[in-house]
Amino acid sequence: MKVVIIGAGKVGSTLAGELVKEGHEVLVMDTNEERLEDLQNRIDIMTLCGNGASKEYLEEAEIAESDLVIAATSADEVNILSCFIARQIGASKTIARVRNPEYRTQLELMKEELGLSMIVNPELSAANEISRILRFPSANDVELFCRGHVELVEYTIGKECPLCDLALKDIYGKYKIKVLICAVRRGEDITIPRGDFILREGDKINITASPKNIHDFFEAIGSFKRPVKSVMIVGGSMIAYYLANQLIDMRIDVKIVEQNQKRCEELSELIPKASIVCANATEKDVLLEEGIMDFDGFVALTGLDEMNIIYGMYAKAKDVEKVITKVHHLSFPEVIETSGIESVVSPKLITAERISSYVRAIQNSYSKNKVESLRRIVDNRIEALEFVVRDDADYIGVPLKDLTVKQNVLVAAIVRKGHAIIPGGFDCIKKGDSVVVITEGVNTIDELDDIMR
Question: What is the C-alpha separation between 271 and 291, in angstroms, rounded?
């Protein structure tokens, strides 16, 4: 596919890298020539220096011949206008990044008139992910599939965890709860494990099951943590705005610490039920004075990755039960790993996943069994994909043990008539099922047929 990305910032550059990896032809437009040169030195893309809201530059980019235009600048108005003009010129599909909550509600009503195929909001998506993690603090990360009928959670095996030295095939016999450990990270090694795989202290495991079974399993292994009741947020960003509103709706007490006086005044008006504190969190004892040790949740959302990591480490040192940090650049994962912070959120990567899933869907629009959603887990090295079986195929009705599935591909869950099935060898896929598949990133799975050899 030919994809034009307008905006070479954090979101645009991440998208460009992801789409190039998947074999698409990508052109990136931006008004900053140095930024484009830097991006071109790192990624095999074409570039065009110019205004993405200009008809002249859009025509120069051959928008009419493109399959998809993604407007991802930092200005909502530019993104909306770029997509509108691109559609008028003849672009097939357009996606706009829109952050302002006022625009978001209006655009949903105006999508068709503006020619928008999709609206993405990295800040809202990040807030959604953080609130999911806070709802289930036992896990490092939580992903939902099949309309919430299946959860995929990441968990780190501690020293006293009863899963230590246990083979996967023995888990059901010991706990009588249907769960599937579908991916394990041990040091730098990533494994899609078999039944004889033995778990060790320090392993980061990814578990799929129904929400009830996930809850019951964590209770059974003694790792269930009580729901978060109060959260301190450092940084009054747009993510903080979205997150605070979600948490208040969940009846969770929220305190936001922000050093900019004007932003504090805005937040006080926008979120009257939150406690807004105007203070510099880098100053000694500010977080202590604001009662950090009285909160059971802490979220670092400043604009600096380094400060977010430091704040997270401080919160962990003060025994806050659940700590989450926003990190844009995951270039040095070992630094985060040694910090003790287990839950990290990256808005640009969340957005890249959503758009990658959409791109795969339109690329395979001829197939009814195409990708419905996509998540990248375990440092982006494993993909979790959701399919809905709408079309007949050779694998329908065949026991999984009799299918020739590719190496390092795993059918992790099947949802049938609202009921989640953790499949064994005698289970089969039927028409109408939702299917969750786990695969290493080296396997490109665009439709369900691709899991077969």
Answer: 20
Helix, strand, coil abundance in the chain, percent, nearest 5: 35, 25, 35
Q: In this structure, is residue 347 part of a structural domain?
A: no
- Residues 257, 232 contacting (CB under 8 angstroms): yes
Model confidence band, residue 323 (pLDDT cutoffs 50, 70, 90): very high
Compute how many other C-beta atoms are within 10 angstroms of the C-beta atom of residue 46. Answer: 14
Of 100, 51, 68, 79, nearest to 2 (Cα)? 68
Report pLDDT digits (tens) over 231-245: 999 999 999 999 999
Q: Report yes or no on 348 lying in a domain.
A: no
Query: Contact at 8 Å (CB) between 348 and 326?
Result: no
Residue 433 in domain? yes
Average pLDDT, the chain: 92
How many Å apart are CA 81 and CA 53, to the nearest integer?
A: 6
* CATH number (domain holding residue 313): 3.40.50.720
Supply the pLDDT for residue 365. 64
Q: What pairs with residue 428 in β-bridges?
A: 399
CA distance 4 to 170: 50
The model's pTM: 0.90
pLDDT grade, residue 105 (50/70/90)?
Answer: confident
Residues 136 and 209 in one domain: yes
Helix ranges (H only) for 121-234 are: 122-135, 171-175, 211-220
Query: Residue 438's pLDDT is what?
Result: 96
If pLDDT is split at 50, 70 and 90, which confidence band does 297 have? Answer: very high
Write the single-letter amino acid at 96: A
* Residue 144 maps to a domain: yes
Q: What domain range includes position 257?
A: 230-320
Q: What is the pLDDT of residue 77?
A: 93
113 in the same domain as 83: yes
From the list 104, 102, 68, 65, the residue with the least C-alpha distance to 83 is: 68
| pLDDT tens profile 60-93 | 999 999 999 999 999 999 999 999 999 999 999 9
For tokens 């032809």, the residue is 25
* CA dist., res. 449 & res. 389, Å (int): 10
